[in-house]
TrEMBL record:
Protein name, entry field: Transcriptional regulator, ArsR family
GO molecular function, one term: DNA-binding transcription factor activity
Record-linked Gene3D superfamilies: Winged helix-like DNA-binding domain superfamily/Winged helix DNA-binding domain
Organism: Desulforamulus aeronauticus DSM 10349
InterPro entries the UniProt entry points to: ArsR-like_HTH, HTH_ArsR_DNA-bd_dom, HTH_MetalResp_TranReg, WH-like_DNA-bd_sf, WH_DNA-bd_sf
CDD domains: HTH_ARSR
Length: 109
C-alpha cells in the first residue's frame, strides 16, 4: 500500500488548483471541446492548455484531436481507480498504516 501513496499523489497535485477541479467537474457531464471549457473561465488559451496538460499527464483526462479542435473527457478507468484509492485511505480498515509496528511504537509514549 505504501507505494500507492506516491502513485496517487500526482492526482492530488493536479486537483489542487480550483480551475482544474472545475474542469473535472465540467467533464463529468461528458466530452467537451477546449473552446467550450475556455468560455467558462477568465483565462487565456495557453493557461487552459497548461491546465489540460496537467490533467492529461496524470491520466485523469483524455484529449483527442479532431481537426483544429481538441476534445477532452474524463478517463473512466483512472477516475475509478483514484476513487477506490481515496475510499481506502479515508475508511477504517484492519490493515491501516497506523497499525504498522513502528508507527504504534512512536505514538503516545
Amino acid at each position: 500500500m505504501r507505494e500507492q501513496y506516491a502513485d496517487y499523489a500526482h492526482f492530488f497535485k493536479a486537483l489542487s488548483d480550483p480551475n482544474r477541479l472545475m474542469i473535472v467537474d465540467m467533464l463529468s457531464c461528458g466530452e467537451l471541446c477546449a473552446c467550450v471549457i475556455l468560455e467558462k473561465f477568465n483565462i487565456t488559451q495557453p493557461t487552459l492548455s497548461h491546465h489540460m496538460k496537467t490533467l492529461c499527464d496524470c491520466g485523469l483526462v483524455n484529449g483527442r484531436k479532431e481537426g483544429k479542435w481538441t476534445y477532452y473527457s474524463l478517463n473512466g478507468d483512472t477516475v475509478r481507480s483514484f476513487r477506490a484509492f481515496f475510499e481506502r485511505v479515508t475508511t477504517a480498515k484492519e490493515d491501516c498504516i497506523c497499525y504498522e509496528k513502528n508507527i504504534e511504537e512512536d505514538c503516545c509514549q
